[in-house]
Design a protein that fits this description.
single chain; two-stranded antiparallel sheet; globular; seven-stranded mixed sheet
C-alpha cells in the first residue's frame, strides 16, 4: 500500500512535507561544528557561483550546509526518492534541474549550464541517483570545465545515526546529537582540459569527496563509509 501511495502526486507531496519536518527538526536539535577550507567557506557564503558536490548518502541534511539566501539549482532525478527530497527542501531550491547521469544526462548537463549562466549556483550528487556509490560521474567535471565555476566538495556526519543497507549506504541522522560539516578546498577544471586532464579532474573530485566524507565520519566517531569497488555498475 505504501508503494502505491508514493506513486501518487498526493502521496509524494505528503511524504515530502513529512520529510521536511523531520529534516528541520533533526538539523535544529543537532550541535553543529564546521571544519572548512577558508576559501571554500568564503565562496559558499559569498554571492559567487559555485557547484556544491556531495555524495548521495548525505542527502538528508544537506540543507544544513547550504546558506539559505544563496540561490541554488539542484540536479534531481524523477525517481520518487528524489522528488520527495525536492518537496522536503523545496524552499531552499531556487530551480530544480530534472535529469540524471543514467536517465537523461544531457538534460542535466544543459540544466546545470543554463542555471550557472543565469547566475545561480548548482548542487549535485555526482554518484546519484543509483550509483555506483561514491564514484564521480563525468558530467560534473564537464559542467565545471565549460562554466569555469569552482566545485566545492562537502559532507556532513552526526554522532547519532543509522546507515541503511541501501546501494548508497544512506545516512539517517537522529536528533539531539553532535554534527560536523566538512568542506574541502575548491576544485577548478581548466577550460582547455583534454580527455586525460578531465579524467584526472574526475579522480581528484572523487578523492576529495571521499576525503571530506571520511573526515566527517571520523570526527563524529564512526568508521568511514567505503566507496563501491572500482568498476561497479551501480544499482
Amino acid at each position: 500500500m505504501l508503494k502505491r501511495l508514493l506513486k501518487s502526486e498526493a502521496g509524494l507531496r505528503a511524504a515530502g512535507i513529512l520529510a521536511g519536518w523531520i529534516v528541520r527538526f533533526v538539523g535544529a536539535t543537532t550541535r553543529w561544528e564546521w571544519v572548512a577550507d577558508p576559501e571554500s567557506l568564503a565562496l559558499l557564503r559569498s554571492e559567487e557561483r559555485i557547484i556544491g558536490a556531495f555524495w548521495h548518502n548525505r542527502l538528508m541534511l544537506i540543507l544544513v550546509v547550504w546558506p539559505r539566501p544563496k540561490p541554488v539549482a539542484m540536479v534531481m532525478s524523477e525517481h520518487g526518492d528524489s522528488r520527495i527530497l525536492g518537496i522536503a527542501v523545496g524552499d531552499y531550491i531556487t530551480r530544480p534541474i530534472w535529469g540524471s547521469s543514467r536517465r537523461n544526462p544531457m538534460a542535466a548537463m544543459k540544466g546545470m549550464l543554463r542555471a550557472l549562466d543565469d547566475g545561480l549556483s548548482v548542487a549535485i550528487t555526482p554518484d546519484g541517483p543509483r550509483g555506483p556509490r561514491m564514484r564521480c560521474r563525468p558530467g560534473l567535471v564537464e559542467a565545471a570545465r565549460q562554466s569555469g565555476v569552482p566545485i566545492l566538495p562537502a559532507a556532513w556526519s552526526v554522532s547519532r545515526r543509522k546507515v541503511l543497507r541501501s546501494w548508497d549506504r544512506f545516512v539517517v541522522a537522529w536528533p539531539f546529537g553532535r554534527g560536523v560539516v566538512v568542506l574541502g578546498p575548491p576544485i577548478r577544471v581548466p577550460a582547455d582540459a583534454d580527455a586525460a586532464a578531465l579524467e584526472a579532474s574526475r579522480l581528484a573530485i572523487e578523492a576529495a569527496l571521499n576525503a571530506v566524507a571520511a573526515e566527517a565520519d571520523r570526527l563524529t566517531g564512526h568508521p568511514p563509509i567505503e566507496p563501491a569497488p572500482e568498476g561497479s555498475r551501480g544499482r
